[in-house]
Amino acid sequence: MGLLDGKVVLVSGAAGGLGCAYARLFAREGALLVLNDNGVDERGLGADESRLSTLAAELRSVGHKVALHRDSVATPAGAEGFVKAAVEAFGRVDVLVNNAGFVLDRTLLRLDEEAVDRVFDVHAKGSLYATQCFARQVLAQGGGGRIVNTTSASGLLGHFGQASYSMASAAVYALTRTSSIELQKHRITVNAVAPLAKTRLTVDLPLFQGVDTLTPEHVAPAVLFLASDASRDRTGHVLAVAGARVYALKFVESSGRFKEVDAGVWTAAEIAAAWDSIVKL
Predict the structure, then answer these.
(1) What is the spatial distance between Cα 15 and Cα 53, in angstroms, rounded to a whole number?
(2) For the chain, what is the largest distance between any 2 Cα atoms, rounded to a whole number of angstroms?
(3) For FRET with 141, which of 1, 107, 160, 202 sits at 20 to 30 Å CA-CA?
(4) What percent of the chain has pLDDT over 70?
């Protein structure tokens, strides 16, 4: 018996890399799959439909049920079409994995509006619109579902040359936290993964040169966990995966320093003098 037996699972950005690894694992765990990909390359260009078709044919050849959706989820209409495709094919939705995205690495001073918009639209707006449409359908079914978003350490910690991607990833983190709070009463859990994996988006980065231990297949079981009932009522978490290492990413606050009530407000000079104790965890 699989962890996703009979569950209708929607995966965006499913044609390669992480999404492809998720789809294969979910299929083996009994999911009814709705795979989305508009065929763009690692820079968000082009429209190659063959990769998604090839994956679907592979899965169907061994008996798995797969429906396809090829429009971008970065618009409300595209996201609505994604959910509609699932309902038309299988009658319901149970799990959403927001995985669509690409990177346009440029330093802050070289960024232009077009590059910022393209990255932010697919990562942040795409996750928002798909989450919104999915949640509305789940509510219409009576509640109960799971959403897994994709953020990154770049979004929580920053990374050189990735201002637009970091900003978009941080927005996905904020969406995860807020939607986990709002949707909990409807029995919808919302979590995120922060994967570190060698894919067509990252293969040229120095970190991945000569490395064979940071694969999408390392990440897929963490997404399966969050997408399945094995994660129970856990919600609002970010699970990071880097090869054999699985760990949590989170914001933390220091204990800080209190000033005596009758000592007046803090001055800038006092904050400077107390800095080390203010920021100490």
Answers:
(1) 8
(2) 75
(3) 1
(4) 91
Give residue 1's pLDDT band: very low, low, confident or very high (50, 70, 90).
Answer: confident
Q: What are phi and psi of 219, to 5 degrees?
A: -80, -35
| Those residues with Cβ within 8 angstroms of residue 25's Cβ, 6 or more apart along the chain or in another chain | 217, 220, 221, 223, 224
> What is the chain's alpha carbon radius of gyration, rounded to the nearest angstrom?
20
Structural domains of the chain, ranges and CATH numbers in brackets: 8-250 (3.40.50.720), 253-281 (no CATH)
DSSP assignment of 21-44: HHHHHHHHTTPEEEEE-----TTS
Adjacent-strand bridge partners of 216: none
CB 122 within 8 A of CB 113: no
- Among residues 22, 129, 165, 173, the one annotated as catalytic is 165
Average pLDDT over the chain, rounded to an integer? 91
How far is residue 278 CA from its own chain's centroid?
33
Give the neighbor-by-neighbor strand order of the sheet with 95-97. Answer: 66-69, 32-36, 8-12, 95-97, 145-150, 188-196, 238-242, 245-248
pTM exceeds 0.85 for this model: yes
Contact 8, 166 (CB under 8 A): no
Q: How far is CA 23 from CA 60, 71, 83, 183, 263, in A?
A: 12, 18, 17, 25, 60
Q: What is the DSSP letter of 81?
A: H
The C-alpha angle 151, 196, 99, rounded to 5 degrees, equals 40
Active site residue 165: yes
